[in-house]
Amino acid sequence: MSLNIMRKESLDRYLGEDKLFVKSMNARDLMAIGIGTVIGTGIFILPGTIAAKSAGPGVSLSFLFSAIVCALAAMCYAEFASALPVAGSAYSYGNVVFGEFLGWLLGWALVLEYMLAVASVSTGWAAYFNTLLEAVGIHLPKAISGPFDPAHGTYINIVAVVIVLLITVMLDRGMQSSIRINNIAVFLKIAIILIFIIVGFFFIKPSNYHPFLPYHMKGVIHGATIGFFAYLGFDCVSSSAAEVKNPKRNMPLGIIGTLAVATILYTGVAVVLTGMVKYTKLDVANPVAFALQMVHQDWLAELLSIGALIGMFTMMVSMIYSSSRLIYAIGRDGLLPSFLGKLDKKTHSPQIALWIVAVIIAAMGGLVSLDQLTSLVNIGTLFAFMLVSFGIIPLRKRKDIGNRGGFKVPLYPVLPIISGLACLAMMTQLQKETYIGAAIWFGIGIIIYFTYGYWHSKLAKNNN
């Protein structure tokens, strides 16, 4: 018996399976999900770090170049989301255009990206929150303030666990109320960033921009390879396609709009920051807060701590939501146990998948030290970006998938190919340890596929 790992999924079956989702989101909601994911604490750190080590005041160019590369992948995602308005993002796209095995690998890469990213951010949120508690005289017992490490007196990071579970309770109550809360949080986060840009503008010293390119264009390009990773996360928007009104219009607006707003904010912070303080002084843990203290604006530095908490909160909301839709989609296809692919009859959302995702993420954030694993998020994302970009070519050849009136990547097939190659080039910038970790992760995924997924797949049952 020969294995048929290239069998392809039907768009019609996906649309039929996903029809119970409530279509409640518009382009503004999608942009809130995307911005909530992309704009986190990195906006207060990366511009200063890149300026000090790589690009000088030219860091603003680094973020522009990064955005151009990301825009190529964003356009490819936008076309897929317009043509295939189904749950599961790149996982489902891969199943339709590449076949089940590559689709599974894409899904397995996204599982790594989403869950590991949320678990890591939950520990960062806990650290910020504990600092605020200590500022008002509240000190949590050491035993519940860190990952499981009895040698150093810590057993669980209880704050990281609690914030993940609270967000899950919010999402469990339904998407409409969750979207409203997320939209408000994203608005507050953007407002705090804009306050920094506006206040900081009045403290700019033109002399700080000279020399503008101390490390020449080579430094700007190197800074762009680092800044590229700041934009990763907009792909979360595509996970919600099954719950969007008029997806042909709103999905491209949500994806491309997210990247446009993120670029403006990152570039704005970079311009103001390097104008306030000489770039040589910005190699510190929190360069934006440092710059504000240098100009005696401590009140805004404290406000940024609240902005960081809100930023991490919205990122976790978006990623937990996206994770649940991804796990639902994989369960829907039978590659993981089928109960994961069930929608609740009352809320019309994948509650089982949501809570299993939450428990895994909470356990990781509460019990495991993730410092050495977070770089794996980047390789999982870039792998998905690369295949989605190249996937535009077989997508256009599928006569059974109509995309009339939907978004299409311009200059086909040149831009999709350039996008895929650019993502491949970015992958070469990752460290050897990242590749070793990824090889182990994908090895586990391949074992699961051939011992369980292949034999329980809905495609296998339909083909027999």
UniProtKB/TrEMBL annotation:
UniProtKB keywords: Membrane, Transmembrane, Transmembrane helix, Transport
A Pfam family of this chain: AA_permease_2
Keyword Transmembrane: yes
Regions crossing the membrane: 30-52, 58-78, 90-111, 154-172, 184-204, 216-234, 255-279, 299-322, 352-370, 376-395, 407-428, 434-455
InterPro entries: AA/rel_permease1
Cell compartments where the protein resides: Membrane
Domain of life: Bacteria
Membrane topology: Multi-pass membrane protein
Protein name: Amino acid permease
Organism expressing this protein natively: Limosilactobacillus caviae
